[in-house]
Specification:
This protein is α/β, with parallel strands linked by helices and 354 residues long. Helices cover 38% and strands 21% of the residues. It contains 13 helices and 14 strands. The strands form four sheets. The protein has a six-stranded mixed beta sheet with strand order 2-6-1-7-8-9, with helices on both faces. Strand 3 and strand 4 form a beta hairpin. The longest helix is centred in the middle third of the chain and has 25 residues. The chain is flat and about 60 Å long. The relative contact order is 0.15.
């Protein structure tokens, strides 16, 4: 990832429900959801909070330790969740790699994201134009083919100018896979580094989201995400209590938004650490396996450069102790150094010298 913010591109054939889903994700009508191809031309971009019940509990602990107000300011002054940046990208059609539809303009936008949500039409509605959609399997194949063809164009140019023997061999190996109509697989972290400059579409993690009718939602139990863009749109205007009641009525436990974000974190190997104080309670996104100085660097580059140590306690232990001071008195707060590998839910205070 280029930054600590996860970015996800919503793609699919025209009229499969991408913009409706995007509007629901943003809880506002930020994109034009229209019943004709290419209603979206430039990618609509929106930032969505990552649901995290730990933040409110931390805020309550901070209030218990520091009071509810300091002068005229609330404590904590801010509660800041981690966020996901969603890109609603124009519908792809057969021949896009050769310039059909919005062609290369569309493909360029996909190269900018960390992961892809591929929305697949799995609902029947004669009032919504199919615009190239045939069946879920064929629709997926159409888009996969266009991504492969687009990557082949990139590779053919790079093969002529590969600077090293290692790059030439790796690029050739990838091209063989693409020529067979297969997504390439990288064997080592070194390969991933060598191929990074290509920013290949077929190497981006994909989350398949089947847009189904409302009455089908409770019938699926697989790794693929099934949601109803129409239901997500309704949920976006509900209170938390009403949302949970509606989900229960539908026979499901999570909204599509929660599922997509959770899956995005999983396939990209991401996790969250937390900071808490009177100024703010905040969630931060890092890679699994990140060490303490790298986590500090997500907050500010100076923190990583001048890292001394980290005071760390698990969220569960902090809640159980009812506050930072009590956790310290009980010996639950650890002093960790530069080699400490961060864990999901760590609550941290960094010590650094600038």
């Amino acid at each position: 990832m280029s930054s600590s913010v996860l970015s996800i591109g919503i793609i699919g054939l025209p009229n499969v429900g991408k913009s409706t889903l995007f509007n629901a994700l943003l809880k506002r009508q930020a994109a034009l959801a229209a019943n004709y191809p290419f209603a979206t031309i430039e990618p609509n971009i929106g930032v969505v909070d990552v649901p995290d019940v730990r933040l409110q509990k931390l805020a309550e602990l901070v209030q218990e330790e520091f009071g509810r107000k300091a002068g005229d300011k609330e404590i904590p002054e801010k509660i800041i969740p981690a966020v996901v940046k969603f890109y609603d990208i124009a519908g792809l059609v057969k021949g896009a790699s050769q310039g059909e539809g919005l062609g290369n303009q569309f493909l360029h936008h996909i190269r900018e994201v960390d992961a892809i949500v591929h929305v697949v039409r799995a609902f029947e509605d004669e009032n919504v134009i199919r615009a190239g959609s045939v069946s879920p399997d064929e629709d997926i194949s159409t888009i996969d083919t266009e991504l492969i063809l687009a990557d082949l164009q990139v590779l053919e140019k790079k093969l002529k100018n590969a600077e090293t023997k290692e790059k030439l061999e790796l690029f050739t190996h990838i091209k063989v896979s693409l020529d067979r109509g297969e997504r390439p697989k990288l064997e080592t972290p070194e390969d991933a580094q060598l191929v990074k400059e290509l920013n290949l579409l077929t190497l981006k993690p994909v989350i398949f989201v089947y847009n189904v009718s409302e009455d089908k939602l409770s019938t699926f139990h697989t790794d693929v995400i099934y949601l109803s863009a129409r239901v997500e749109s309704e949920l976006s205007s509900f209170s938390e209590a009403d949302k949970n009641a509606y989900l229960k009525e539908l026979g499901i436990t999570q909204s599509g938004l929660d599922q997509v974000i959770q899956k995005g974190y999983s396939i990209l190997g991401l996790q969250t650490f937390l900071t808490a104080g009177p100024k703010e309670v905040r969630a931060w996104t890092i890679k699994q396996g990140a060490k303490a100085p790298q986590a500090a660097g997500v907050i500010h580059t100076d923190f990583e450069r001048g890292f001394i140590s980290a005071e760390v306690v698990s969220f569960e232990n902090l809640i159980g102790a009812k506050g930072w001071k009590n956790a310290k008195d009980k010996g639950l707060i650890r002093i960790e150094g530069k080699n400490y590998i961060m864990r999901d839910g760590d609550v941290v205070e960094f010590r650094f010298s600038v």
